[in-house]
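Weekly puzzle thread! Below is a chain. First person to post its structure in token form gets bragging rights.
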Amino acid sequence: MTSHRQYKLFVVVVSIILPLAVASLFSIRIPNVQSLSFLPPIYASINGLTAVLLVVAVVAIKKNNRVLHERLMKVSLLCSILFLVMYIAYHMTSDPTPYGGEGYLKGVYYTVLISHIVLSVVIIPLVLITYVRALTTQFDRHRKIAKITFPLWLYVAVSGVIVYLMISPYYIT
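Winning reply:
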């Protein structure tokens, strides 16, 4: 059986390595790769699906349907992993797309984008800790942190869709 210490080490390592790996995308490009320009609408849709799954999972647990809640949360986690893989693949093979909007929309875009980026780093350890606490049947502690994790994870998922919708007119295909 995996000890709590091993889980803590896993959470810390993933929470540090993942943001650093994603940040490195901005300086790494894989040349001569077929365009992956079809990925942004797919990974934005996965973010939207994650948001829906999170809400339905919370409704399920409030109705004491622990089995459905657990399944929906596992699918939410899987969706987030799929998003991340596609996001990394796209950004390692494509140049960044500058936002072309002007006026107050530019301010809105960058406010949403920056909050999305900051909270996407914060959410990694929160999701992992919340998941580990459920996995190790620490349900009281799981519930306490889930009350923080849920709204932040939901915001990250929804704001990811908003960022995509706002930048999508400026993608070069």
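Puzzle host: Confirmed. Bonus trivia for everyone else. Residues 115 and 156 are 8 Å apart (CA to CA).
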